[in-house]
Amino acid sequence: MNVMEVEDLHVSIQQKSILQRIQFSVQQGEIIGLIGPNGSGKSTLLKTIATLHHITNGTIRIFGQDIQSYRQKELAKLLSYVPQDTFIDFDFKAKEVVYMGRHVHRSRFETRMEEDFFAMKNAMMQTNTWHLAESSILRLSGGQRQLVLLAKALAQDTPLIILDEPISALDIYFQLQVLSLLKRLGDKGKTIMMVLHDLNLAARYCTKLLLLKKGEVKLLGSPEEVLQEDILQQTYGVHTKVRKDYVTNSMTVTPLINRKRKEIWR
Ligand SMILES: Nc1ncnc2c1ncn2[C@@H]1O[C@H](COP(=O)(O)OP(=O)(O)OP(=O)(O)O)[C@@H](O)[C@H]1O
After folding, report:
1. Ligand 1 atom closest to Cα of 44?
2. What ipTM score was computed for the predicted complex, to two decimals?
């Protein structure tokens, strides 16, 4: 089933073209790793899908319907989004932040139901944050806050989950916990699209990689198809060695000194 189709998408911000001719589709259960150099447009693409940026041209369809024709609440039942910046300025308990993910399932004056409690608790258990439920979000570490915001997205219980660098503040234990949780969700039919900078983890946990360069899709394919030495050289300007890791059985990328560019670091 086609969960998302993006057709000839162009996005300009303040008259500057950021995304051009973006075209791809995403099927149910896929875990798409959005990769590409700094400034290539990854966050802009996710924000545009989350309707935070105006579409200059083209179409994004979610479950066959143009995202611009959805009412906000309807779309929030289909798509949850966790931004790169997880700063929260209000003194909420962590569990209250996770409960916010449930708002889309209730009218404004409706009280919380038992199922909201279970969705909140389950999301916090899955992300190893249940012990932080009563803590103020202001007193959590950056990594703990990132996990709580992931829990909020899980509590929202949408078929499509969009995450901007969901493991950027996490130690290696929690990186693997989160990525294997997302993989299990993918196996259960959730569709996930996330920005990752770590190409090795992207190769290991994503079913497909979408490579952006200068606001355009350079390639969409399996990790084997996308992570090729010449493609990485052209996109990142870095010489790499790519091979299959015999422990994880996934592609692994080793960046090497780029002799041609005479870089000064070693
Ligand atoms: N609100 C904005 N106003 C003006 N320019 C913007 C805005 N947001 C992003 N840009 C520009 O759009 C381009 C793409 O930015 P974006 O954040 O999407 O890149 P990215 O691939 O997510 O980068 P990174 O890997 O560094 O997070 C950059 O040149 C950036 O300066």
Report:
1. 18
2. 0.97
Distance of CA 193 to the CA centre of its chain: 5
Q: Please write the tens of the pLDDT for every residue from 77-128.
A: 999 999 998 778 889 999 999 999 998 887 766 777 889 999 999 999 999 9
> Please, what CATH class does the domain formed by 1-78+158-222 belong to?
alpha beta
CA distance 165 to 116: 27
pLDDT in tens, 163-190: 999 999 999 999 999 999 999 999 999 9
Helix axes 114-126, 142-156, angle to 10 degrees: 140
Q: Where are the domains of the chain?
A: 1-78+158-222, 86-157
What pTM did the predictor assign? 0.94
135 Cα: distance to centroid of ligand 1 (angstroms)? 33
12 CA to middle of ligand 1, Å? 11
